[in-house]
Protein 1
Amino acid sequence: MRALRKINRWQDSGNIQLCSVERPTPGADEVLIRVEAAGICGTDIKIWHGSTWSNPPVILGHEYSGVIVETGRDVKNLKPGERVVSETGQVVCGVCEYCKTGRELMCDKRLSIGYGVDGAMAEYIKVRQGIVHKIPDTLSFDRAALCEPFAVALHALMDHTRLTATDKVLIMGPGAIGQLAAQAAKSVGALAVLAGLPKDQERLDAARSAGVDVTLTDLSEEAVKEIAGEKGFDVVLDCSGAERAIRQAMRSVKKTGTFIQVGLTKPELTIDYSLLTGKEIQIIGTFGHRWHNWETAIELMSTGKVRVDHLITGRYGLEDWEQGFTDMQEGRGIKILIYPNKREEAAKIEGDSKL
């Protein structure tokens, strides 16, 4: 089968190749999935440039949807032909505190698809049955490929707050996760404000078209007061990982409010740490997702309560991966999909495609 692999030292820039590799064989507790659509994530770009850890030789891709084609002998509740997505934690110990309490991504032994073990930018992927979620026929493969970033956004916002319809929520960074966090806030009736830079105007316009209440490129003190009042925002999420955005976000949260760090940052930042005590704010770090976040993402997207079509801005065949990666790196679009199997059916369902 064809697969996009990081082939040697993770620290090296490049070394991504479209290779011919053996089709994986599922183990007793695993299923084999034909990949229908795979999303390009910022992590994939970092692996391309060797700026984040990976475990080469390894197939990239951790956002995907597909169809089960084979099951292992111990798989009972999944069968060939079922439409599915999967979580990312393929290898975990299963016995530590985190695994036992549904926080498997915190497991010290965890290896995730796409960088720890082989991922979804290939014709087929095998994963353990415990991380597979079925998707209904009402959810297209393209939309389902966004389940992973949506689950991340839901974990960040819903698992760490008691969000209500009267809350005002500020999200920094209009990438896929930021956009989906804004949609999640809207789903419970909260005021959703999405902030970015002037170069993000196209992304912000897309968010407004999908129902986000307010978008802005100027997060001045006056702008915060105009939108959120003298107190500031009840909840602020940073999905950018940028130091300047984080400082602005912390100043924008109200006293006793909640600041949630979603975007990955560099190891050391300069922030106004006195705000923790001066404003008695909570700072929460969040990573990944939990089982119920996936089920919620599937439900919200399949029922149309959350709109995601506007986030899909590029489609490529696997052989054109480098153009897709370049578009993503240079900010041309929001979420770019790759079709490892060149499914004409998927292209017809979703519209124009560069297959």
Note: The chain is about 30% helix and 25% strand.
Protein 2
Amino acid sequence: MIPTSSTNYVRSVGIPCVALDDVLEITDCIIVNEQRSNIKDLKKLERDTRSFELIYTYYVDQYVAEIYHPELARFKDIHKGKRCFIIGNGPSMRIEDLNTLREHNEICFGFNKIYRIFNQTKWRPNYFCMTDLRVMLESRNELIKNDYGIDAENCFWMDGLYGFLPYGNYIHMITEPFAPNLPRRSPDITKGVYNGCTVVYEFGINIAIYMGFTEIYLVGVDCSWTGKLTDECNHFIKDNFYESEKSKWEGINPPTTDVMLAYEEAEMYSRKSGFRIYNATRGGKLEVFERVNFDELF
């Protein structure tokens, strides 16, 4: 038990309470019975590379009855032992790389407005995801109007808009703040996923883990935003934002620091849990994951 504001009470009822540093080397599991925000040095503890598990009993299934999506259980381990590619919309992404993925029948995740590149390639993501309410509202009419060749059963939407589209799956987004600590992990998507300030982490990585992939490759995840979020230099899709949409994004900047914390959590968990996440992006500023050469994967 980690000493917190309840330490004096714990001692008064006769429960042994020892210093955390004295037991870390021999600990398999640490049970935390306090809000994360009240725990001193939590950031250091969550970044510890030793292989102990953190269980937060304070949060155990508080809202499961409201947010539970049991229908998502059908995706559990359906790709166990395989590899997948998570496709970002960063400026380093290439049409040629998408065509290579299609040629080799690789399993891919796509996000947000990547459908605006479909007129230039026959590649389609196996799984398509959105979590940002603004992107969903801007995309709805296009997705309803056009048949983009995406398997409608393999789409995932944030459950803030039930009925957003007449197909797909909804996942609950738990939007609790986390910085400067790491975000909480989302081991069971039927009970929701935690905020990570990027759809790549919230849905892409968490869903891929739930599906059982043992190798997850990021491509086009540059994390090299410059200027305004809507500037074309930040996206490989020429019309990622239509002119009519840009005004809605004024003053909104990418939460770079929080995004990096989310990726750091994913990297730490992967090394402790028997799967790996690699960065196959051509360039960019994301150095959290081990880099690999995209061309050498085929």
Note: The chain is about 25% helix and 15% strand.
Protein 3
Amino acid sequence: MKKTQSKSEKEIKETIIDSLIYSPLFDGLIENELKIVADHMDYSEIETGYILFREGDRGDSVCFVLEGVVDIIKESSIGGEVVIASLPKGRSIGEMSVIDNFPRSATAKARRETTLLTLTQKNFDEILKNHPEIGIKILKGISRLLSLNLRKTSSRLADYLLPVS
């Protein structure tokens, strides 16, 4: 269950901008560009155990962890659920969903009380339309992040494969 917001609008906007400065996804954005992005983001405080989205749900937003931890959970092929990652402050979830319309590849659940920023696909599309230079910088940030994640996954996969003889 989402909690009510405990900060004023001004405090929330300042928190959003301060958080975006340190997110690698927004590298290269200057202060006035960060303010534009902040105007397109939603701020929420969620309780322990809250499910942000489930594996298979339609993806339409990327979330940024401001405080707390979000567990990423996959259904195991032998039954049950497996936590494949725990994302702390500063990490993002669902970057692919602002680009494609594929279902979520995992479930995201708050391990403890967590504060999130959310950029919906609709708001991202609005940034691309009205501020294309900012949209391009964000797309480059998403590309860098996805590339890094793919490299990490490839390295982990290689640890499980048999050597080529």
Note: The first strand starts at residue 2 and ends at 3.
